[in-house]
């Protein structure tokens, strides 16, 4: 192994020999060769585009060279992206803290109370500022949040119309994303200059308003929102949260839905992301919310506890009937934004907003004093200035001083002010527009302290109501208090820094510190996504390398890095397939075949791409039923658009017939979409593009080491064959049109930024650079070895539900706990919660088969940790049989009462028929390293019956 690979891979040569002996193989390579079908093994290639593995120091040095190619300018482009000061206490204790960034989605709420509290704080922040009843736990970005708002309006409106009205003064990237999403599902967009009094159509299902507008204009949209309601539609408003500290809330104006981004609340620009979008709705629409919603419930002692509510993971339940394909959030970034509000409080946020507004007013006055035509009198932080025929000159003059302005057209320049803008910055910008330099006795700074904020905004739009009144926004004022609060929250959670998270399909592998290092560098962090090409050459070079490496590894020709989640990657690939069929004159091809075992987002994504889902059965071994597949292909041959198949399968098995399956679809004129969620079991041994794949999404937050961040960020880039590549998404504000191989994408955007969540791409770049092609192959082999070792060690205790040739699995295995329940009455939930007492995060529970645990150990865990998990599972089984033998009552035993808290154990009265030691120290090894869950088992149903999705009053915890 290379130096870095030996640190990334948890099992050394000696451990692997021991594991192989249990499996009957002489080498790791022989094991994987036996597991992966011979028909798809990657052919030996004499050359590769991936350079040999670098050391950690070498990789950081190369990243520094790339970073130095980015010009660290002062971004004043705006359009929903603003420079911001991330409080150092948040940078150090959240963004750079593995207790936060290595956590998984809070599907086991008892060990996720810290991030759930942070998310409910986020939701409270959003509802307070927007003036609406309920907010979700974040969206992917603003543009896609607006698209989700449009789809929510169509679901909730009783109007028969298919018309959705779009504000002409919306951000250009938002309008572009809306066009893509609307076209796919047959929505008719009508763009109108709403601020100028354009009348709404008589029939519509919704209207969308940008507040303030992209031009900076602040106007009263109440009449438009009222007219939309009269027509039977819903009103969606995209609002700037910082502006809402000074301006009336969307809810008070009559909005049904508010959307936007929380980026300027302390989240770095990162060349476009990741950032936490938001969505809030009025009362009565909470069950229509897409994404995740954190609610308050109670635990077994009746104490308040947080958990995911209502529609969580609805895609896995409702599949093609799901209302959204979003199964994730931007948790890490939502936590940062929420803690920014906690740190500053309402007074601090108002002070920041007032300062921004004063700077903008002072700049506007300076420009007017020197004869410039500022478009609007009412604004918050953005100005549009008319400079006939000289817009490019103004932008270039500003750039010569280190400032990036927005070139709107040949006669118009935009400039946006943020919390980092100084008086000297304002003076330099004014100079770019033609204002004179200060004389030698004057100060170059432009005074703004006396300017009146939002001076031109009508008094009726000034905010008067309170916000952020909960004590959490008033308590943690000193850095000491803030540091301790963040530590307390982190201590309530279980993340990879505590132990293994063996979640099947989720690939919770090491997120190495060296991989993470560069994301905080200002040359990567403080870069605007619409900065000019000359200022972002380092980013573009890194992106070109990543595209090339990912294409090489997957056997495809082109890669698009824009989708900012796996689900969005699915949608992107399917839209490319639709574009291809339409270009070939076969628009009738809209049927998407999906195996019954598929990830639930597959079906939801197909529907959002305008396709009709037809389910294909699986056989008893968990493979696609070839007979049913052929029958479905024959039935829908003329309408067949695509087959979506996960490989290895969702059941954790390498299907032997995948090449034959792909050929059958191709023969019928369809395309093959290979879901790349399980690529960690294949990388270096087989390539999607070689065995029939036409397009795939890849999860950089799984296979390529970007951390899950408590449930987000994610990146789901799409790789495609040459015939589909032209239909991948372009972007109206992209710095370059061409991609690797000179291919030009022509599809519309699926994310707000040209390269999606580019700010975390250095993580995957560093991972691949330090692993090299050999290290990536070794990682795959180690992951497959670990999964098979767990399967063989546990199969005598828990049946392994699906296996392939030779009884082997891929990178994960499904343990069938249904026989245990039949024999003992102990459920999969009981086992999952009891694992917490043993110091583990439970595997994936009841997916894809109810009553099972899907275990994925990854390559990063060492043999001691694997053995610890094996011993825990065997011990839990013994406890279950002790219950069935009558040693403990069925309703009072260590499993049904799990997990056990410290408070429960130190209570004066202990009435259970088992000892306190059995409850919390089932193995002696836990005595020194015990993780104590903060709450007992949570009542999920209670929380849905008594829905509360904002911070409960402090008295509730008394």
From TrEMBL:
Cofactor: pyridoxal 5'-phosphate
Pfam family, one: GcvP2_C
Residue numbers of N6-(pyridoxal phosphate)lysine PTMs: 702
Record-annotated Glycine dehydrogenase C-terminal domain positions: 779-900
Gene3D superfamilies, per the entry: Aspartate Aminotransferase, domain 1, Type I PLP-dependent aspartate aminotransferase-like (Major domain)
Keyword Oxidoreductase set for record: yes
InterPro entries the record matches: GcvP (IPR003437), GDC-P_C (IPR049316), GDC-P_N (IPR049315), GDC_P (IPR020581), PyrdxlP-dep_Trfase (IPR015424), PyrdxlP-dep_Trfase_major (IPR015421), PyrdxlP-dep_Trfase_small (IPR015422)
Catalyzed reactions: N(6)-[(R)-lipoyl]-L-lysyl-[glycine-cleavage complex H protein] + glycine + H(+) = N(6)-[(R)-S(8)-aminomethyldihydrolipoyl]-L-lysyl-[glycine-cleavage complex H protein] + CO2
UniProt domain Glycine cleavage system P-protein N-terminal: residue ranges: 7-433, 474-733
Full protein name: Glycine dehydrogenase (decarboxylating)
Highest taxon listed in the record's lineage: Bacteria
């Amino acid at each position: 192994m290379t130096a870095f690979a030996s640190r990334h891979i948890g099992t050394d040569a000696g451990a692997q020999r021991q594991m192989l002996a249990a499996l009957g193989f002489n080498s790791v390579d022989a094991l994987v060769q036996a597991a992966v079908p011979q028909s798809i093994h990657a052919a030996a290639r004499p050359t590769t585009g991936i350079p040999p593995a670098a050391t950690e120091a070498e990789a950081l040095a190369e990243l520094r060279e790339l970073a130095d190619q980015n010009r660290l300018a002062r971004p004043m482009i705006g359009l929903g992206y603003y420079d911001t000061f991330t409080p150092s206490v948040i940078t150090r204790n959240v963004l750079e803290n593995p207790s936060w960034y290595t956590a998984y989605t809070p599907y086991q709420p008892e060990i996720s109370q810290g991030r759930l509290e942070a998310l409910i704080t986020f939701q409270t922040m959003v509802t307070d500022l927007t003036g609406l009843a309920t907010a979700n736990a974040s969206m992917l970005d603003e543009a896609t949040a607006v698209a989700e708002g449009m789809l929510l309006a169509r679901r909730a409106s009783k109007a028969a119309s298919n018309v959705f009205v779009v504000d002409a003064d919306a951000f250009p990237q938002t309008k572009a994303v809306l066009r893509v999403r609307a076209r796919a599902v047959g929505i008719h967009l009508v763009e109108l200059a709403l601020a100028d009094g354009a009348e709404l159509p008589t029939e519509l299902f919704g209207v969308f308003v940008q507040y303030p507008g992209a031009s900076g204009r602040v106007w009263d949209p109440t009449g438009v929102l009222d007219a939309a309601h009269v027509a039977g539609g819903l009103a969606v408003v995209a609002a700037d949260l910082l502006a809402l500290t000074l301006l009336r809330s969307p809810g008070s104006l009559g909005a049904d839905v508010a959307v936007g981004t929380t980026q300027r609340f302390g989240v770095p620009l990162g060349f476009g992301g990741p950032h936490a979008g938001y969505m809030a709705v009025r009362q009565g629409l909470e069950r229509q919310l897409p994404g995740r919603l954190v609610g308050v419930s109670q635990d077994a002692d009746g104490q308040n506890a947080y958990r995911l509510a209502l529609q969580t993971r609805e895609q896995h339940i409702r599949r093609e009937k799901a209302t959204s394909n979003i199964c994730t959030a931007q948790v890490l970034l939502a936590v940062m934004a929420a803690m920014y509000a906690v740190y500053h409080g309402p007074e601090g946020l108002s002070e920041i907003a007032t300062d921004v507004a004063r700077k903008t007013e002072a700049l506007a006055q300076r420009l007017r004093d020197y004869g410039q035509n500022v478009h609007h009198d009412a604004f918050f932080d953005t100005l549009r200035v008319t400079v006939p025929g000289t817009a490019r000159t103004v932008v270039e003059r500003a750039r010569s001083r280190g400032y990036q302005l927005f070139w709107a057209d040949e006669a118009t320049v935009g400039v946006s002010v943020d919390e980092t803008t100084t008086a000297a910055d304002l003076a330099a910008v004014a100079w770019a527009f033609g204002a004179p330099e200060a004389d030698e006795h004057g100060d170059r700074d432009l005074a703004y302290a006396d300017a009146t904020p939002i001076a031109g905004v009508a008094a009726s739009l000034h905010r008067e109501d309170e916000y952020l009144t909960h004590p959490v926004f008033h308590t943690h004022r000193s850095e000491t208090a803030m540091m301790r609060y963040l530590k307390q929250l982190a201590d309530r959670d279980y993340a990879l820094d505590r132990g293994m998270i063996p979640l099947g399909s989720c690939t919770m592998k090491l997120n190495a510190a060296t991989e993470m290092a560069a994301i905080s560098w200002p040359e990567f962090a403080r870069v605007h996504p619409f900065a000019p090409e000359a200022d972002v050459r380092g980013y573009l070079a890194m992106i070109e390398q990543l595209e090339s490496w990912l294409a090489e590894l997957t056997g495809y020709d082109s890669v698009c890095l824009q989708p900012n989640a796996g689900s969005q990657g699915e949608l992107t690939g399917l839209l490319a397939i639709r574009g291809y069929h339409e270009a070939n004159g076969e628009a009738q091809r809209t049927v998407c075949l999906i195996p019954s075992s598929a990830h639930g987002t597959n079906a939801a994504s197909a529907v959002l791409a305008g396709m009709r889902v037809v389910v294909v059965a699986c056989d008893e071994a968990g493979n696609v039923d070839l007979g049913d597949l052929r029958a479905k292909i024959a039935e829908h041959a003329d309408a067949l658009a695509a087959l979506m198949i996960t490989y290895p399968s969702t059941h954790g098995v390498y299907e032997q017939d995948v090449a034959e399956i792909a050929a059958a679809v191709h023969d019928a004129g369809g395309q093959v979409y290979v879901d790349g969620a399980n690529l960690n079991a294949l990388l270096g041994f087989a390539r999607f593009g070689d065995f029939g794949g036409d397009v795939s999404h890849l999860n950089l937050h799984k296979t390529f080491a970007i951390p899950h961040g408590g449930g987000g960020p994610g990146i789901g880039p799409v790789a495609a064959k040459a015939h589909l590549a032209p239909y991948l998404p372009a972007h109206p504000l992209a710095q370059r049109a061409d991609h690797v191989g000179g291919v030009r994408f022509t599809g519309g955007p699926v994310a707000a930024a040209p390269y999606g969540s580019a700010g975390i791409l250095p993580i995957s770049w560093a991972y691949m650079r330090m692993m090299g092609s050999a290290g990536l192959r070794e990682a795959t082999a180690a992951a497959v070895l670990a999964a098979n070792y767990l399967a063989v060690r546990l199969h005598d205790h828990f049946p392994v539900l699906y296996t392939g040739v030779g009884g082997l699995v891929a990178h994960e295995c499904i343990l069938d706990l249904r026989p245990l329940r039949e024999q003992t009455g102990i459920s999969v939930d009981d086992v999952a919660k009891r694992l917490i007492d043993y110091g583990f995060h439970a595997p994936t529970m009841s997916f894809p088969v109810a009553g099972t645990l899907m275990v994925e150990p990854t390559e990063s865990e060492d043999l001691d940790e694997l053995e610890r998990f094996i011993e825990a599972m065997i011990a839990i089984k013994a406890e279950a049989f002790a219950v069935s033998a009558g040693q403990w009552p069925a309703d009072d035993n260590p499993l049904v009462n799990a997990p056990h808290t410290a408070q429960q154990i130190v209570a004066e009265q202990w009435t259970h028929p088992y000892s306190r030691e059995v409850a919390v120290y089932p193995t002696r090894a836990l005595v020194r390293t015990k993780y104590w869950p903060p709450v007992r088992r949570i009542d999920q149903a209670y929380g849905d019956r008594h829905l509360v999705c904002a911070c409960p009053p402090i008295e509730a915890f008394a």
